[in-house]
Amino acid sequence: MNDSSPAHLPRYIDHYARSVEDPEGFWAEQTLAVAWFQAPLQTLLDKPDGTQQWFTDGRLNTCYLALDRHIELGRGAQPALIYDSPMTGVQRQFTYVQLRDEVARLAEVLREAGVKQGDGVIIYMPMVPEAAMAMLACARIGAVHSVVFGGFAPNELAVRIDDAQPRLLLTASCGLEFDRVIEYKPLVDRALALARHPPAQVLVLQRPQARAEMQSGRDLDWAQALAEARPVPPVELSSGDPLYIMYTSGTTGRPKGIVRDNGGHAVGLLYAMTAVFGMRPGDVWWGISDVGWVVGHSLIVYGPLLAGCTTVLYEGKPIRTPDAGVYWRIIEQYGVNSLFCAPTAMRAIRRQDPQADGLKGRDLSTLRQLFLAGEKLDGATHAWLQEKTGKPVHDHWWQTETGWPVTAPCMGLAGSRSKAGSSNQPVAGYVVRVLDEQGAERVDGEPGAIVLRLPLPPGCSQTLWRDHPRYLDAYLKAFPGYFHTGDGGYVDAEGFVHIMGRTDDVINVAGHRLSTGEMEDGVSHHPSVAECAVIGVPDALKGQVPLALVVLKDGADPGPLQAEVVAWVREQIGALACLREVRIVKRLPKTRSGKILRAVLRKIAAGEDVVAPSTIDDPVILTEIAQVLSVFR
């Protein structure tokens, strides 16, 4: 554990206690950090269905808070956004004034295309500055944007178009991978042909790597339209007006449109940037993700800009663009103070460069800490990263639904502690409980379902786009009075939360419920293992037994691996775990955001028919994995 927070900062224990004992009073205080057009008089409205609305009578504009407000405070010449694309060699910087002007003119382009307050807008773009500008331009005029990960298949894009029913779609001619150019426009054209509610117009950013064919009367050229546009001011919106829709996978196969409101989002996210991440105006923040995911919304675009920081927008990978040292180059070049990334990115770097040769000679003196989340941070990666960088490495946990961290070390508050192996303590506003299947509370480190006591703090989603009953059924029905996160884990004696994975990442071995996440953590400590996934496979005698799928580090000797891994699990977890099978694979199926598709692996192992999820990075890997798992059916 550590506590390196300056003593002059507010104390974590005070913030947390007040947020739990008096949520209305606590969050009313936090609204003072937001420049409202009309400050809210009513802090919290509880609805009969168990949902809440924060700051109901407040008036504001998120784009104004992210850009115009900082210019008024004298930060207009400060860099707001840094764009670095190692695949194209392009590096650009936008000051707050420059970014505001680009966004304000793009907002006029949207208006000229018929977009009005409350209209939906689909953004289907690569990691370029214009993607962030598009989001902010929608916020400026009160349009509701939904960013769809660039490169999604046409059918998946069409599904989201039909749900959002947008008036306009913004795209680029192409996206870039380290080994290929992905033309977006043919994918968009096909999606619009499939959709029942296609938008009337498409705004296209032409990139030199591939020029898009334009359809007369429907497609607009981004550069031409922007050249003729005049800047527009931000509109005044109600706190409860939606800011964006973020689609996340649903168990029925139909994506769930998580809705984020303007007022709660601004208050909650600004609190997170300052109290959790410890960021101050003028600091340089790097959120390593994609604008198609919630991290891209909270930690690339809105969060850093709301806090008056400089945000880095990176178009590249942790390796092969050009090598495993690119992260360290960016930290040094731009003086990054703090960053966020997924554990899978650091595992990829560790696999290709286990001795961190790419770090040698790099000056990381500006870097204060690293935050990792998105999936379980295994102990081996945590230890390797902290040793090689010499910086604190913090796990934390949150979800698309919450929009900002639920558990984390609060680096902007004194007395906040960090504990390796856990996702750390709850952040102000979140009351974390662990319940069994009947709803009884689990104590003393007993595992169960992780839930959040209502009311949820500001910024958390309170509904789904066009489907509020589905929200109530998915999140509030299972445990009355609580929000069901879908994750399993436990709280230890010191109050630190341990997330072991989704509740279905628990296997039943001869009547014993065992966490595959705990086994994965052990397997990942083996010096030859780059990453792994442990799943349950059918067994005639025990019902299920665990199987470890392992990706080796480059050049590692697989010889003694199985015996050593089996011995470790037996020693640390016990013979009842029954881990006897270890299979080496070239790679694991993942989403484009880096999460291992464990549910898909389980279905393949059980012999079920599997359709490649829309979020999968490379569908070909499923065929390779199916061959490996076929012997267990």
Topology:
Elements: H1 12-21, H2 23-30, E1 44-46, E2 52-54, E3 59-60, H3 62-72, E4 79-85, E5 90-95, H4 96-112, E6 120-124, H5 129-141, E7 144-147, H6 154-164, E8 168-172, E9 174-177, E10 180-183, H7 185-194, E11 201-205, E12 219-221, H8 222-227, E13 237-238, E14 242-248, E15 256-261, H9 262-276, E16 284-287, H10 294-306, E17 310-314, H11 326-334, E18 338-341, H12 343-352, E19 369-372, H13 379-389, E20 393-395, E21 432-435, E22 448-453, H14 468-476, E23 482-491, E24 497-502, E25 506-509, E26 512-515, H15 516-523, E27 529-539, E28 543-552, H16 561-572, E29 581-584, H17 598-605, H18 620-629
Parallel strand pairs: 4-17, 6-7, 6-8, 7-14, 8-11, 11-12, 16-17, 16-18, 18-19, 19-20, 28-29
Antiparallel strand pairs: 1-2, 3-13, 4-5, 9-10, 14-15, 21-22, 22-23, 23-24, 25-26, 27-28
Helix pairs in contact: 1-2, 3-4, 3-5, 3-10, 4-5, 6-7, 9-10, 12-13
Mean pLDDT: 91
Q: Find the CATH superfamily of the largest domain.
A: ANL, N-terminal domain
Tally of helical runs? 18
Biggest sheet statistics: 7 strands, mixed
How many β-strands, per DSSP? Answer: 29
What structural category characterises the helix and strand content?
alpha/beta
β-strand percent reads 15-25%
> What is the CA–CA distance across the termini?
44 Å
Architecture of the largest domain, CATH level 2? Answer: 3-Layer(aba) Sandwich
Helix content: 25-40%
Give, in spatial order, the strands making up the sheet with the most strands: 5-4-17-16-18-19-20
Shape: globular
Fold-level CATH name of the largest domain: Rossmann fold
Number of domains: 2
